[in-house]
Amino acid sequence: MAFSIRLTDDEKRLADSYAKMHSMSVGEAFKRALFEKIEDEYDLTVYEEAYKEYVDSGMKSSPIEELWKELDL
Predict the structure, then answer these.
(1) For 1-57, how does the pLDDT look when each residue is reduced to its tens digit (9 = 90+)?
(2) For residue 22, which of 3, 29, 35, 69 sits 20 to 30 Å off, Cα-Cα?
(3) Contact indicator for 18, 8 with CB cutoff of 8 Å
(4) 3-class SS letters over the chain
(5) Burial class of residue 29, CB neighbours in 10 A (0-12, 13-18, 19+)
């Protein structure tokens, strides 16, 4: 699938500079940025769901020192 986007001259210079600095095409730079953004948002959603589940469970955390003491470390 191909697509096009409109950039200002300054945005184009910045995108070209970034791509050149990382030895990739502008298209590859945009593709990587898009999928990194998708992955970051997915990770955040998973974290938020897991944290809510933890809070809702009523569990409490303990300092790592307590675990070390339990394990005789």
Answers:
(1) 888 999 999 999 999 999 999 999 999 999 999 999 999 999 999 999 999 999 999
(2) 3
(3) no
(4) CCCCCCCCHHHHHHHHHHHHHCCCCHHHHHHHHHHHHHHHHHHHHHHHHHHHHHHHHCCCCCCHHHHHHHCCC
(5) middle
Which pair of tokens denotes residue 4? 């096009």
The pLDDT value recorded for residue 1 is: 86
**CA 16 centroid distance within chain:** 23
Q: Does the CA dihedral 65-68-69-73 come out positive or negative?
A: negative
Distance of alpha carbon 46 from alpha carbon 1, whole angstroms = 29
